[in-house]
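Sample 3 of the quickstart, ligand calcium ion:
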Amino acid sequence: MKPIFPAALITLLASQAFTYEREPDRPNLIFVFPDQMRSSMQGFLGEEPVMTPNIDRFAGQGLVLSQAVSNAPVCSPYRAMLMTGMYSMRNGVVTNCTSKAGAYGIQLKEDSRCWSDVLHDRGYNLGYIGKWHLDSPHEPYIVCSNNSGDLKWNEWTPPERRHGFDFWYAYGTYDQHLRPMYWSTAAVRDSFKYIDQWGPEHEADLAIRYIRNEGGKFRDKKKPFALVVSMNPPHMPYEQVPDKYVRMYDSKASEIQAMFSHPAVADTSDRWGKYFRGNIKNQLAMVTGVDEQFGRILEALKRAGMDKNTIVVFTSDHGDCLGKHGMISKSNPYEESMHVPFIIRWTGRIKPGKDDLLFSVPDIYPTLLGLMGYGGDIPAGVEGTNFAGLFTGEPGVSRPTSQLYFMTDAQLYNPPTGEKGLFLRSGERGVRTGRYTLSIMRGPKNKTTTFLWDRKLDPMELNNISYANAEIVKELVERELIPWLKKTGDPWLE
Ligand code: CA
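Result:
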């Protein structure tokens, strides 16, 4: 056996140490997603008079997926797809987690293998801050404002249902932004606490403490970490936003006024026009507030010297029509509802730029694990695609030709036959391609209504051209929709 020369050994060790300093194998992850922020509310796009200086700067540093969508644009279905990498028919969360849905067992399954479970098993510390909304309320219901009506929304998540998150500061659903409530890691079900501070600001405060690992109490400094910050604004109630952000829009009065003449607002009934006009300024202000808090998190990461070794994602669970098209908010296939921000930054590893990839929610899980070096840990049941190679410049990653759209929600509450139950064959199914959005709504007595928008010729989606374009509809159904429904095990086809 040849002896190892000390000089060579020193060189070897030195190069390893240097490699580790420069390019550690195990990146951290920070995943920030406000609730209900449509894509067009990113200032750098120039589509709305919104002020988002931090998101704009971040977009310049990261990869902007300009065509990302929420496939089922409503809270719990998005969140379950995010956590499981499966579409709703397979992960079971086909509608929002509420007291009614709970009767059908609809909530994130305890045995789902989430990406956070994988990272936990790989030695990561995991933190979750903010809205979870993946547990259905059960009796006796938590006494709080979101549980005061017939339908209950808020529930505690017991430790065994946290999917690897060892640091917990969260709630199920609670829409009081100026006085939010949280359960901390060790809190039991009846020991939540209220906070007199705007939710996103409080959550950013906590995220910053987590990043700094204040007092060594938040995480093990020897471990990499993944932190999720799930902010509730710009979700309604829109007026619950600090005045300082609203006042910033006094200077934008004429631009906001100009938004009132958008055909999708002006052509709808007065009720929805009023709704839009009454709320848009506050909603813009909320996004500016979220942007400021996101900026604080990025700054803390930089000051901690971890900005290069941390993958940062900014996205949203769905958008908001805010009365446009006569739609109150989400749960529909319009761009305002379905099209979301998605920006990912990993300095030195992901080339900054823009990509019109038709990215879907279940793709997030495998793509993140792929980027982090755990592509081999992605469970076989994950239905999303690992696009890590596409982001890091590897050849040979094929690009999808459409995104699935589906909504099953209404059927729990208004089943067409009058029966109570879970009706997965009703509701809407469709696809979104680079050019078209197709949605087929199946209502009472199997009657279907088809919507087709050509977003290239009609970006505001004002004209349903489905009846004059039966061939396009047929082709989209046969070439895109049916394969998606088969892939995702959707009984809608039967
Ligand atoms: Ca939501």
